């Protein structure tokens, strides 16, 4: 590798690392200032708070990797431009494409780490981050994690609850159906279902069972009864962040199982899966945009480049969040929602790169 490549690559990686070290403590300070009251009120142990902020660091670094990288590239490339170093490089006969090579090598290093982080480390951090949040920061709230859950438990059994309250492990308007072939064998109704942890059973209130055999219907009623069912508590209350906590292999199995069950959260889970691949690609795209924008010496200096870069970053985040929410809460295709921002900004990267070469 040439001296030029080492020089730019070193600046690329060191500036990115400094950007992380600068913004992560700020993020932790702001988060701690906002939540310290609830932590003290709910008596969160110091060890768990420390673990929470380690998970917090990994969780948000994974989310904001491309933006940190984008701003760091604009920062040090603008300094190169203001010091006329880029002019010297290009005047020595180095083409702009050749000048871009160490940036792409650096992007490959960061993208590889981001891919590994998203596949394996971020799910572990997400698990700890969300568990602490629900244990201590939302402790005094009835967290209604699920509404209108309809799931297929196995080939013959289906369940439904209109709402499940995780704080009391209680579901409302519970229905259980057992179907063999195309024939309904029995159906259970209950106004309430509550999980009894001591014996892993469920307590049903206003219980009604309708059985069908040879065209004859039998109705059984109880004011309250305890029963065991072939499903887990998690089937009634699949947490919103479930997909975020699973390594990639487990995530694929989880999504396949949820599709068989008819889960209403498939869009959310697909977005999580696809973003593990789209985020490393966005690192290349934002690197090219940052170099194209900041490699020209401007009259306003670094401030103009940074302002333009921040504006682009905000637009990128806006597109990413809006389309992500659309896929999670509607029938909008997840693959379009996740890759559309990269497509748009990829086209912008090619346009800016062509202008920069000229």
Task: Please summarize what this structure is.
The protein has helices at 3-41, 46-82, 85-91, 96-137, 233-236, 248-261, 266-294, 302-329, 334-357, and strands spanning 144-152, 157-165, 170-180, 183-196, 201-213, 216-227. The chain has 358 residues and is α+β, with helices and mostly antiparallel strands.
Provide structural commentary.
Helix content is 63%, strand content 19%. The chain has nine helices and six strands; from the N terminus they run H-H-H-H-E-E-E-E-E-E-H-H-H-H-H. With 358 residues, it is an alpha+beta fold. The chain folds into two domains: 3-138 and 262-357, no CATH class; 154-230, no CATH class. The longest helix has 42 residues, at 96-137. Strand 5 and strand 6 form a beta hairpin. The radius of gyration is 27 Å and the shape is elongated. The chain has helices at residues 3-41, 46-82, 85-91, 96-137, 233-236, 248-261, 266-294, 302-329, 334-357; strands spanning 144-152, 157-165, 170-180, 183-196, 201-213, 216-227. It starts with a helix and ends with a helix.
List keywords for this structure.
358 residues; 2 domains; 6 strands
Total count of helical runs of at least 4 residues: 9
What is the number of E strands? 6
The SSE string, one letter per element, is HHHHEEEEEEHHHHH
How are the strands ordered across the major sheet? 1-2-3-4-5-6
The tally of domains stands at: 2
User: How large is the share of residues in beta strands?
Assistant: 15-25%
Q: What is the first-to-last residue Cα distance?
A: 26 Å
Proportion of residues in helical segments: 55-70%
Sum up the overall morphology in one term: elongated
Rg: 27 Å
Instruction: Provide the low-confidence segments as ranges.
Output: none
| Average of the residue pLDDT scores | 84
| Structural class by sheet pairing and helices | alpha+beta
Q: Characterize the main sheet.
A: 6 strands, antiparallel
